[in-house]
């Protein structure tokens, strides 16, 4: 199946010039609206944060008070470790976490020396910026190749550039 043919509405460089002007205007208008929207969202978020804050603080304080009550009454959590109430459940969970007692580099070295490599996260990937400096022969030897292609682009002039052109 061949490439789908696009309709060719632009027939001359003069029409391209008009299209570039139109693209610049459309993108500037979109950017202006996007900037205005982001400003309104930030303002709205800040105003609602002030409305939300007292509720969040009250809930946080109540949570702390409930936790203090639970810690003061361990008998409520025997033999079950939780208590079901009308509006929820309170209880204690056994939580285990790992805390490193030495610097991460020291722990990593100890893991590697013991062959526990699955406990070490390593992300390795080719550095394409460095590869770009290699010769084509070197690239071929390591299983890579330089690939060039024609890629279409549009560079729009900034407002100051357009002002100097239109004078």
Quick structural gist:
The protein is mainly alpha-helical and 167 residues long. Helices cover 53% and strands 5% of the residues. Among the domains are: 13-72; 100-144, no CATH class.
Folded structure, characterized:
- The structure is a single chain.
- The protein has 167 residues and is mainly alpha-helical.
- 53% of the residues lie in helices and 5% in strands.
- The longest helix has 60 residues.
What structural keywords apply?
mainly alpha, 5% strand, 5 helices, 53% helix, two-stranded antiparallel ribbon, 167 residues
Number of H/I helices: 5
Helix content: 40-55%
What is the ordering of alpha helices and beta strands?
A: HEEHHHH
Number of strands: 2
Derived from helix and strand composition plus strand pairing, the structural class reads mainly alpha
CA radius of gyration is: 32 Å
Strand order of the largest sheet: 1-2
Question: Main beta sheet: strand number and arrangement?
Answer: 2 strands, antiparallel
Oligomer: single chain
Integer average pLDDT = 86
Span between termini: 49 Å
Q: How would the blueprint of this fold be written?
A:
Elements: H1 13-72, E1 82-85, E2 88-91, H2 104-113, H3 128-131, H4 136-142, H5 159-166
């Amino acid at each position: 199946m061949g490439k789908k043919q696009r309709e060719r509405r632009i027939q001359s460089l003069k029409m391209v010039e008009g299209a570039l002007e139109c693209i610049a205007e459309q993108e500037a208008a979109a950017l202006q609206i996007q900037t205005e929207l982001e400003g309104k969202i930030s303002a709205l978020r800040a105003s609602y944060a002030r409305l939300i804050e007292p509720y969040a603080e009250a809930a946080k304080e109540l949570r702390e008070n409930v936790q203090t009550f639970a810690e003061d009454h361990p008998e409520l959590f025997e033999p079950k470790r939780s208590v079901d109430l009308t509006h929820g459940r309170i209880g204690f969970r056994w939580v285990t976490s790992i805390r490193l007692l030495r610097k991460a580099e020291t722990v990593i070295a100890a893991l590697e020396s013991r062959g526990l490599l699955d406990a070490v996260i390593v992300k390795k990937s080719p550095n394409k910026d460095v590869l770009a400096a290699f010769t084509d022969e070197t690239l071929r030897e390591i299983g890579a190749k330089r690939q060039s292609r024609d890629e279409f682009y549009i560079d729009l002039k900034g407002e100051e550039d357009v002002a100097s052109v239109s004078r």
